[in-house]
Design a protein that fits this description.
Elements (H helix, E strand, L loop, with lengths): L6 E2 L3 E3 L5 E3 L7 E2 L10 E4 L2 E4 L4 E2 L2 E5 L13 E5 L14 H4 L9 E2 L2 H10 L4 E4 L8 H13 L3 E6 L5 H8 L4 E5 L5 H8 L4 H13 L3 E8 L7 H15 L5 E5 L14 H13 L5 E4 L9 E2 L6 E6 L2 E5 L30 E2 L5
Parallel strand pairs: 9-11, 11-12, 12-13, 13-14, 14-15, 15-16
Antiparallel strand pairs: 1-6, 2-3, 3-4, 5-6, 7-10, 8-9, 8-20, 17-18, 18-19
Helix pairs in contact: 2-3, 7-8
Bound molecules: iron/sulfur cluster.
Length: about 350
């Protein structure tokens, strides 16, 4: 029976030895009664696997959409952002580890129904709601219900995810998502195995699925960690893969690492590394390559892929200059910019505003 925060799930099956295997993500946790999966928010209760934190959140905040990061999806607009607790990867460098590694339900201090979230987003003039801070793959049922409520009220839904999910639940999930930023954490199985406790191949599969088989707008983020995933060779391979397997118009964001969680022994990423990566990715053919987390006017700017003039200039998350027509075309040469645009940009700026939920 469903209670307030515990709901039935359907991506699991029973094994011959009596354990239940969760089929939501490629970790395939095999659970005895009373056990929780690695993500901690899903667990076996009697004869089924349930999601145990439906409607619970670690807090709500209104962010600029550029912070997700999404630079080609309704630029300048505010997005109501929230996450839950737990994660299905175990990245040693996690920049949100207080949320993602939480085993404490008291981190989940706020609760909100999908309708309450939407009414809060509407009251604050948000254009969308984002599932972020931790991976929405693990709160699949809640995220889908919120996305459905968004669409009933003219809002967009945004997933920020590592893309570590099995094909069937992925198909259901992305039917309801308007935009996604997927972390492509590196381009080697070694990195995924040693540093994240996962695998690269399912993530590449998710990227191909989203780009080729859904209408979800896709951008990709790679956090560069000195000495781990920042070699010229790896950056070139990753960029070439995006260019050839997806499209040269998928935006790629290189962001800077700061020492955190279990990776305090690596230095922060210097700006020169982000700029070098951006140059390599552009040489490989990608048309929209951004740098993030550090001030870099060139790396924050959207250039027209046809005439190379600046179309959207930013300082961090703030839009400084806008040279698109109301139809989303370059004002100078008429090229249609890839993405989703309104006739004028939003003016939310770089604010980050914690909010409480409308009851
Ligand atoms: S979603 Fe959670 S319980 Fe299911 S396989 Fe992944 S980590 Fe394990």
């Amino acid at each position: 029976m469903d209670t307030n925060h515990s709901v039935s799930t359907h991506y699991w099956h029973e094994l011959d030895n009596g354990k239940l295997q969760c089929d939501l993500c490629p970790r395939f946790c095999k659970l005895n009664d009373g056990q929780r999966g690695l993500c901690f928010v899903r667990g076996r209760v009697g004869k089924e696997i349930r999601m145990l934190s439906y409607g619970l959140s670690s807090g709500f905040c209104i962010d600029p959409i550029e912070k997700k990061p999404l630079n080609h999806f309704f630029p300048g607009t505010p997005v109501l952002s929230f996450g839950t607790a737990g994660c299905n990867l175990a990245c040693r460098f996690c920049q949100n580890w207080d949320i993602s590694k939480s085993r404490e339900t008291d981190r989940l201090c706020d609760s909100a129904s999908p309708e309450q979230l939407v009414s809060t987003a509407v009251a604050n003039n948000c254009r969308s709601i984002a599932f972020t801070y931790n991976d929405p793959v693990i709160f699949h049922e809640y995220a889908i219900d919120v996305a459905k409520a968004c669409h009933q009220h003219g809002l967009q839904s945004v997933a920020v995810s590592a893309g570590y999910v099995c094909p069937k639940p992925r198909e259901e999930f992305y039917q309801h998502m308007d935009a996604a930023n997927i972390d492509l954490k590196a381009f080697t199985e070694r990195f995924y195995k040693k540093i994240c406790g996962g695998e690269l191949a399912p993530v590449l599969d998710t990227l191909e699925y989203i780009h080729h088989q859904t209408d979800t707008w896709l951008e990709i983020t790679t956090l560069l960690i000195p000495g781990e995933n920042d070699s010229d060779r790896e950056i070139a391979q990753l960029s070439r893969w995006i260019c050839t397997q997806l499209s040269d118009e998928v935006p790629l964001h290189f962001t800077a690492f700061h020492p955190d969680w279990k990776m305090l022994d690596h230095p922060p990423t210097p700006l020169e590394t982000l700029q070098r990566a951006r140059m390599i990715a552009r040489e490989e053919g990608l048309r929209f390559v951004y740098t993030g987390n550090l001030p870099d006017p060139e790396g924050n700017t959207t250039y027209c892929p046809e005439c190379n003039r600046p179309l959207i200039k930013r300082a961090g998350y703030m839009i400084l200059d806008w040279s698109l027509t109301p139809q989303g075309c370059c004002r100078y040469c008429g090229h249609q910019l890839a993405g989703r645009f309104e006739p004028t940009p939003g003016n939310w700026g770089s604010r980050r505003l914690p909010v409480s939920i409308n009851r």
